Amino acid sequence: MENNELEMIKKEIEEVREQINTYIQYPEIFEDELTEASKQIDILINKYIYLSK
């Protein structure tokens, strides 16, 4: 079960990375979205690290 959860988190991380890559093209327009996506990816990465131990 933990493996499935790790895979789901990896997919979420990839989706957020794609969002960030889109937003980064126009940082002055998407400043708030970049901030939120950065927070979200930090949370997901920390969760992934915690579960992978």
Task: Give keywords.
Spo0E-like, Aspartyl-phosphate phosphatase Spo0E family protein, mainly alpha, Spo0E-like_sf, 53 residues
SSE arrangement:
Layout: H1 2-23, H2 31-52
Organism: Intestinibacter bartlettii
Protein name: Aspartyl-phosphate phosphatase Spo0E family protein
InterPro entries: Spo0E-like, Spo0E-like_sf
**Straight-line distance between termini:** 14 Å
Indicate the radius of gyration in whole angstroms.
Answer: 13 Å
Proportion of helical residues: over 70%
Backbone structural class = mainly alpha
Globally, the shape reads elongated
Low-confidence sequence ranges: none
Biggest sheet features:
none
Structural overview:
- By secondary structure, the chain is mainly alpha-helical.
- It contains two helices and no strands.
- The longest helix is centred in the first third of the chain and has 22 residues, at 2-23.
- The radius of gyration is 13 Å and the shape is elongated.
- The mean pLDDT is 94.
